[in-house]
Write a structure and sequence with these properties.
about 325 residues, alpha/beta, Rossmann fold, 6-stranded mixed beta sheet, binds adenosine-5'-triphosphate, binds magnesium ion
Length: about 325
């Protein structure tokens, strides 16, 4: 098997509707490495779910090819299904049964014996920390508990790749962080995770690499760090004593050092834009010392993935989600 466990070539899905053709996915090329957490970030309506459903053999592409674990999705869907798990945007647990019963049912659907399914279910209860509620009927679960059960169902048959569509939508920050931990745990067990999200913080924290999609087309791809670096470095904001008196002279001295790409001054702050804040901050402190300027505050901020999105598309991911009724 190649280093890539999921690849797509020029993948397209067009829907025809009364108002014309919707190009939901429009020529997407993806390459997901074995064992990584791959983030698929985009605003509402970008084409994330449509792409995921095609990858998971649940929808036929208009054109293009998909290969998963060495199998062509169009020609060998059954082999592909054996290697993947899928947790849809709305989950899939069967509510009148308990969590464990749902897990066992899933195992049986994949051909496990009852004893095997029972053993695997108990293993997952431990791994995903479902102990407190696994023997309760699913409709008594909280949102976070349901999501964790959904993930357990998705990996019951030990897939190589797990597709998660917006796994943390609607969860509070505590439950979201818990689920992030569980997803990271799955990765350490060797599962490749392909996850869609419109939360840039989530994509940033979880993904080893990510692809940004907008209006069916790929906008950018890379590690979160590399994508943010592309935007052009860090901003060091300093507040100094007697800024009115020393500010001008200080700005000239900083400019002379040669590491800043831009310097701006606000009422209480001087902002110094640099390629790599961590490399510069020591030199800056030394300069302040030499100039006998007393530092009050200093912060270094990196660009966010929203800055990446903004630079590539001309609008903010946050704004776009708000426009379309998203809940970012
Ligand atoms: N069956 C369909 N018929 C017509 N249009 C569709 C169909 N399914 C999806 N679309 C359209 O395709 C586009 C992409 O939808 P998709 O569900 O893939 O977006 P998404 O990125 O998952 O968005 P969200 O973040 O809101 O879940 C949208 O414009 C959507 O309205
Ligand atoms: Mg979706």
């Amino acid at each position: 098997m190649s280093e890539f466990i999921v690849t797509t070539k020029n993948l397209k899905k067009y829907f025809s509707s009364r108002s014309g053709t919707v190009k939901a996915v429009d020529g997407v090329n993806l390459a997901v490495r074995q064992g990584e957490i791959f983030g698929f970030l985009g605003p509402n309506g970008a084409g994330k779910t449509t792409t995921l459903r095609m990858l998971a053999t649940l929808m036929t592409p208009t054109s293009g090819t998909i290969n998963i674990a060495g199998f062509d999705v169009a020609k060998q869907p059954d082999e592909v299904r054996r290697h993947i798990g899928y947790v849809g945007q709305n989950g899939g647990s069967d509510r009148p049964a308990t969590g464990v019963e749902n897990l066992i049912l899933q195992g049986r659907l994949y051909g496990m014996s009852h004893a095997e399914a029972n053993e695997r279910a108990r293993e997952l209860v431990k791994l995903l920390q479902l102990n407190d509620f696994a023997d309760r009927i699913v409709y008594t679960y909280s949102g976070g508990q349901r999501r964790r059960l959904d993930v357990a169902i998705g990996i019951m048959h030990r897939p190589d790749v797990l597709f998660l569509d917006e796994p943390t939508v609607g969860l509070d920050p505590q439950n979201r962080a818990n689920l992030w931990d569980e997803i990271t745990k799955l990765k350490s067990q060797g599962v490749t995770i392909f996850l869609t999200t419109h939360y840039m913080e989530e994509a940033d924290i979880l993904s080893d690499r990510l692809t940004i999609i907008d209006e069916g087309k790929i906008v950018d791809e890379g590690t979160p760090e590399a994508l943010k670096k592309e935007v052009g470095g860090d901003c060091i904001a300093i507040g100094v004593e007697n800024q009115q008196d020393v500010g001008q002279k200080l700005k000239i001295a900083i400019k002379k050092e040669g590491y800043s790409t831009k310097i701006t001054e606000e009422s209480e702050l001087i902002k110094i834009y640099v390629k790599d804040g961590a490399l510069v901050v020591g030199r800056l402190m030394k300069l302040l010392d030499q100039q006998k300027v007393k530092l009050r505050t200093i912060t270094i901020t990196e660009p966010s993935l929203d800055d990446v999105f903004l630079q590539k598309t001309g609008y903010s991911l946050r704004d776009k989600d708000l426009d379309e009724g998203g809940q970012s």
